[in-house]
Each structure stands twice: as C-alpha cells, then as structure tokens.
UniProtKB/TrEMBL annotation:
This is NAD(P)-dependent dehydrogenase, short-chain alcohol dehydrogenase family. It comes from Candidatus Kryptonium thompsonii. Belongs to the short-chain dehydrogenases/reductases (SDR) family. It comes from the Bacteria. The lineage of its organism: Bacteria, Pseudomonadati, Candidatus Kryptoniota, Candidatus Kryptonium. Signal peptide: none annotated. InterPro entries: NAD(P)-bd_dom_sf (IPR036291), Sc_DH/Rdtase_CS (IPR020904), SDR_fam (IPR002347). One of its GO terms (molecular function) is oxidoreductase activity, acting on the CH-OH group of donors, NAD or NADP as acceptor. The keyword Oxidoreductase applies. PANTHER family: CLAVALDEHYDE DEHYDROGENASE, SHORT-CHAIN DEHYDROGENASES/REDUCTASES FAMILY MEMBER. It holds the Pfam family adh_short. The keyword Oxidoreductase applies. Keywords: Oxidoreductase.
Length: 242
C-alpha cells in the first residue's frame, strides 16, 4: 500500500498505459480520479472500484481548458486534496513529413499532447502548493528527447512536455512538489499499433509490466527527486535505493 490514501489524477485512462497506471495505483491504496474523451472511462472506473475505496471519473477533452478546470475542481471538492497527477493523455497524429503534415491534425496533436498537459498542471499545482507537496508525472517518449523523421507533431509535443518538466521542476524546487518525465518505451498498445501497424506486438511489454516507475514517482519514496527523465523499461527500484 505504497500510495495509501493519496489522491491521484490519471488522464487518458480508458485504455492502455493510463488504465494500467490507474489500476496499479488503486491496488497500492490510492484514491483515484480518471478521465478520458470516451464513455469507456466509466467502465474503467467501475472496474477500479473493486480494488479501490473510491474512484471518480470524468469524460472530458484535455484540450479544453474549462473542462479541465471543472474536473480538477470537482476532484479536489470530492477528496479534499490532490497528491498525484499523471499527464498521460495523448494522440499520435500523422506519421508523415513536416512538409506534408495536415495543419488541422498538427493543431489537434499540439492541443491535446502539450496544451492539455499544461492545463492540468496549471490547475493541479495550485492545490499542491497549498498542501506543500505533490508529484506530477509526465508521460514522454523517446522521440521527445531525440527527434526522428516522420514523427511530426507527436515528437514536437513531447519535446514541449520535456521542456515543461524542466521549467516547472525549477519553479517548484523549494515547494515540496516534484515533477518528472517517464518514457514508457515500446508497449503493446493501440497507439503503438497505429504507429507500427506491421509490428508483432506479442514481442512487446504490456503496459502492466512497466508501472513500477510510476508507483515509485507517485510515492513518498521519490521525495526530493525532481526534474528528472526516466525510462520505464530500464527502471530498477533496487538500483535507485542503492
């Protein structure tokens, strides 16, 4: 029960990594708040309630500031605090050259993957600062640390997320709030299938297999760890403790 009674918001939690993180946090004793663009989120919330004393769910667009603000306010009203934010919601967009990239798709990817992360962080930080502690975990990508051809808006948005981690961690370094990023690596998910349609996903790790780094960063074990980049598939807690 490493997260006992901590209140955690996980965005994009209706499937894949977000769902796996929410389920693992619930098993560790956290009180869960999840959101997604689809009605699937309410089914996920019902499943989580079997292992969690409380799970709040909301259907919203993370690219809509007013919807984000209302959701965060509702979570705080329900639980009285917010201890953890996992900014997971993202879309892939198009795998094409910059010269050919559709303008409307570019704007949509940036709005969801970067502006949505800013909106949630912007709102949650206010409550964490009053509490004097908290953990914000950004889900990044290898192409957000080293750009590669034909990754377009997705890569650029993840570079922006990494920049936000650095800025926010520096701003909050004396507040007890820590901000870190995690690159999940290749996982057997629908988004990965969209990016690599011919890949054999049976050879990839499942999201449930790489949640340890998220539990560590959400727990008090990571107090003092901020402004760092982590690779989920290389994470070993025993080495950290040494």
């Amino acid at each position: 029960m490493r997260l006992k009674d901590k209140v955690a918001i996980i965005t994009g939690a209706s499937r894949g990594l977000g769902k796996a993180i929410a389920e693992s946090f619930a098993r560790e004793g956290a009180l869960i708040a999840v959101c997604s663009r689809t009605n699937e989120i309410f089914t996920v919330a019902d499943q989580i309630k079997t292992t969690c004393s409380s799970c709040y769910a909301g259907k919203l667009d993370v690219a809509n500031y007013n919807e984000v603000k209302e959701f965060v306010e509702a979570v705080h009203k329900k639980f009285g605090r917010i201890d953890i934010l996992v900014n997971n919601a993202a879309i892939l967009g198009e795998r094409t050259n910059i010269a050919d990239y559709p303008i409307d798709v570019w704007e949509k990817v940036i709005n969801i993957n970067l502006n949505g992360v800013f909106y949630f962080s912007h709102e949650v930080v206010k409550y964490m600062m009053t509490q004097g502690n908290g953990s914000i975990i950004m889900v990044s990508s290898s192409v957000g640390r080293k750009g590669r051809a034909r990754w377009g808006a997705y890569a650029v948005s993840k570079f922006g997320v990494e920049g936000l981690v650095q800025v926010l961690a520096d701003e909050l370094k004396d507040t007890g709030i820590r901000v870190n990023s995690v690159n999940p690596g290749p996982l057997a998910t629908k988004m990965r299938k969209q990016a690599y349609p011919n890949e054999d996903q049976s050879k990839l790790k499942k999201p449930e297999e790489i949640v340890d780094i998220f539990i560590y960063l959400a727990s008090d074990e990571s107090n003092g760890i901020t402004g760092m980049q982590f690779d989920a598939q290389d994470f070993k807690l025993n080495e950290i403790k040494k």
